[in-house]
Amino acid sequence: MLELKNISKEFPGVKALNDVSVTFMNGEVHTLLGENGAGKSTLIKIISGDYQPDAGEIFIDGERMHFRNSREAIDNEIGYVHQEVQIIPESTVAENIILDQLKNFAKHGFIDWNKANEFTQQYLDMVELDVRPTDIVRRMTVAQKKLIQIARALCLNASIIMLDEPTASLTESEARNLFKIIGRLKEQGVIVIFVSHKLEEVLEISDRISVLRDGELVKTIENKNVKKKDIVTMMVGREVVLDKFMGFLDVDPGDVVMEVQGYSLRDNFEDVSFKLHRGEILGFYGLVGSGRTELAKTILGVFKKDKGDIYIEGKEASIPHMRTALEKYRIGYVSENRKEEGLILVADLQNNIGVTVWHKIASKLGMIPLNEEREICSEMVGRLSIKTTGLRQIVNHLSGGNQQKVSMAKWLAANCDILIVDEPTVGVDVGAKEYIHEIIWGLAKEQGKAVILISSDMPELIKLARRICVFKGGRIIGEIDGLNEGVEKTYTEVSAVIGQYLA
User: What pTM value is reported for the model?
Assistant: First the structure.
């Protein structure tokens, strides 16, 4: 049994946790819920030794514990899958997975890599990740890196495993496999502490749920006949309308703003073609490694295509790098990997949001008018309800969900004609998720923007997209059309069709 008693933690200007007491029992899945900044990640980082509490105590099976660092927590059989990607990019899959237990594979000062790779393969098979132990991690997708993190925690054989947004960027089938693994951990008596903003999966796998709000524990409840709307009310302190149908997108089939023909990138995707219309939300769905994100980055010039053509507004385009995509063709990209690609973590909000408009507002001498930049950034902070002490707050000091809002805000500030949005609601709470959905919808419906929505959240795609392209093995293998053209297809119907494509 894990007990937290009267835990408090304060950061400059923020009371992250205030007198929180909660008990986690052996063989249960105990979920922590709350809005962004409610204190969930701070609480599990205290358990993991990443943070030390300002006040309060931790007990494991009645013994008082004090973890000065993550190594001490690991030595006490605590495994932790971080919300953010925690990998060494230039190392192999095996090196990342066995990082916490290298000594188990050492002999006379050398690592037995044959043994390490065989060990690693067991856990790659467990999480159903189709990569080799010797593959370098750097070019892998966020979802693949997330599964590597999960494998790293599982191989510790820990008695307490903490999973912070583990299904972010995973498709439904990949999440299902993770739930099977969690079920086996429960049978072994492991304490599973689960953090997620996806209420459907929380209600499916949780035994108990603790709700945090503004750093305080609201209530711990048994997951018996609990209604989603009641949980949301506890989280946000007010009623929130969830999963409402957005409406219909009327699109002129002849008004094509982007056409991709025969795009290929070796070992990632091959012969991909599609059209994107003005005022359309086009969904991309596929399993880990299916090529969706790699295609987006190739369109933007991050990766160099092997072959294929792209047309913007009917004219052939050449996009050698991201700057050309933004400044010449007005294409923006909300990255799925905010830590490594989406944000400048050591910079403040104003620099992070303003970076996409500098080329527009700069004087002839290259000077940035700070008042104009501040006005634009303030509007975005208000529009996305970013919880911050001000525009000069360092982004790394924000919660993960608020960081995601900043990543979204900078591209809204750019006012692009074409916006590629990759996993836009990863790590955000239910209220913010609904608001981001409304923003994406408004971009297409009200402003006539063209949006490519890459998401592993199938309900999100069904709710927003007019069409969904299904990816498998680096190809588009199917398309579902007319999702909001007068007939509201249900989640069950669309997921069944996608399941047939992916079978």
Answer: 0.72
pLDDT digits (tens, 9 = 90+) for 293-333: 999 999 999 999 999 999 999 999 999 999 999 999 999 99
The model's pLDDT over 75-130, given as tens digits with 9 standing for 90+, comes to 999 999 988 788 898 999 999 999 988 888 988 889 999 999 999 999 999 998 98
State the burial class of residue 240 (Cβ atoms within 10 Å of its Cβ: 0-12, 13-18, 19+).
middle
Q: Which of 200, 201, 161, 150 is nearest to 27 (CA)?
A: 161
The DSSP symbol for 136 reads B
- Report H helices in 138-285: 142-154, 172-187, 199-205, 228-236
d(CA 323, CA 78): 44
User: Looking at 357, 382, 415, which one is the last position of a domain?
Assistant: 415
Rounded-to-integer distance, Cα 401 and Cα 413, Å: 19
144 assigned to some structural domain = yes
Q: Where are the alpha helices (DSSP H) in 188-244?
A: 199-205, 228-236
Q: Are 491 and 501 in contact (CB under 8 A)?
A: no
Of the residues 362, 393, 415, the one at which a domain ends: 415
* Residue range of the domain that includes 311: 241-330+417-503
Inter-axis angle of helices 113-126 and 142-154, nearest 10: 110
Q: How far apart, in whole angstroms, are the C-alpha atoms of residue 402 and residue 41?
A: 13
Helix axes 142-154, 172-187, angle to 10 degrees: 10
Instruction: Tell me the pLDDT tens digit for each residue of 367-390.
Output: 899 999 999 999 999 988 888 889
146 & 254 share domain: no
